[in-house]
C-alpha cells in the first residue's frame, strides 16, 4: 500500500497541478495528493509532507507528521509558524539554485560596476557623457551571508576579477574571500565595500540588520543589491541614505510586502532598480528530483534529511 504524502500549498491552482504532476512522476511509489483531497481519516497516516507557501493550520492537522520538505530555499515563515513544535523542517538545497543565483549576482554587480543605471537615466535626458572606468580589481564586493548561495556567488565574482569579502555568523575559509564576523567585523567590512550583496537568511537576529546606523558604515557612493529578504534592510533608512547620496544605487529584488505596492516611493526613486523577485527561481525539475530523493532515502533508511536549526532559523 502506498504511503500518503500531501502537497500543501497556497500557490495558484495551475502551479499546484504542475508540481503534483512532476512529483507523482518521480515518486511513483508514494500517493501524492493535494491537501484538499486528503481524507480526514488519513490525517494520522501522514509522516512527511511537501510544502510550498503552506497554510500552517492545514499542516498542523497532521498530528503524526515528522517532517516537512519545503520546495523553497527560504524557510523563515515555516520556522516562525512551527517554532516550539516537534516537526522537522527540511529546506531545499539545490546546486541549480546556486548556479542561477551566482549568475544573477554577477549580472547585477556588473550593472552597478559599469554604471548601467546611470546611462539609462542619461538616455532619457539625451545626454552624451561617459563615466570613468574602474577595473574590477579596484572594486570590493562584499556579501552578507556566505552560505551555499553566497559562496557560489562569491566564487563567480572572483573569477571575474573582483575583490570579495564576506560577513557571516561564523568564520569562513573560502579561497580569496576575506571573512568577517561579529558586529565589529561587519563595520570593518562595510567601510571598504563598493558593492554590498545581501544573501543572508531572514531570522529574528537578521531582521533590519541593515538599519540607518549600519548602512552609514558603507563607503560614500557604495551600492547595494538585496537578493535575500526585504526585511533585512530597513527600507526607510535605506531611502534616507539614497536621498543623501551616501548610497549611490540599490538593486532590490525582495520586499517586505510583495508584490511591491504601487504606492511605494521605491518605484520612481532615481537611485533604485526594482526587480519582481526574479534573482533565482526554483527549478521545478531539479528541485523535485532532490525532494523525491530525500523522501526515498527516508523510506529506505528511516532517517530524516538534515533539518533546519530552529534556534538559528536556517
Q: Could you walk me through the main structural features you see in this protein, from its secondary elements to its overall organization?
A:
By secondary structure, the protein is α/β, with parallel strands linked by helices. It has 2 domains: 112 residues, Rossmann fold, CATH 3.40.50.720; 180 residues, 3-Layer(aba) Sandwich (Rossmann fold). It is 33% helix and 18% strand. The strands form 2 sheets. It has a 7-stranded parallel β-sheet with strand order 8-7-6-9-10-11-12. It has a 5-stranded parallel β-sheet with strand order 2-1-3-4-5, covered by helices on one side. Helix 1 crosses helix 10. The protein starts with a strand and ends in a 13-residue tail after the last helix.
Name some characteristics of this structure.
Rossmann fold, 2 domains, seven-stranded parallel β-sheet, alpha/beta, 314 residues
Q: Can you tell me the CATH superfamily of the largest domain?
A: NAD(P)-binding Rossmann-like Domain
CATH class term of the largest domain = Alpha Beta
Question: Mean pLDDT score, rounded?
Answer: 97
Biggest beta sheet attributes = 7 strands, parallel
Number of helices: 10
* Integer tally of domains: 2
Compute the CA-based radius of gyration: 22 Å
**CATH level-3 fold name of the largest domain:** Rossmann fold
Q: Judging from the principal axes of the Cα atoms, what is the shape? A: elongated
Strand runs, count: 12
Helix content: 25-40%
Amount of beta strand? 15-25%
Secondary-structure element order, N to C: EHEEHEHEHHEHEEHEHEHEEH
- Structural class category: alpha/beta
Q: pLDDT below 50 for ≥5 consecutive residues: which ranges? A: none
CATH architecture of the largest domain: 3-Layer(aba) Sandwich
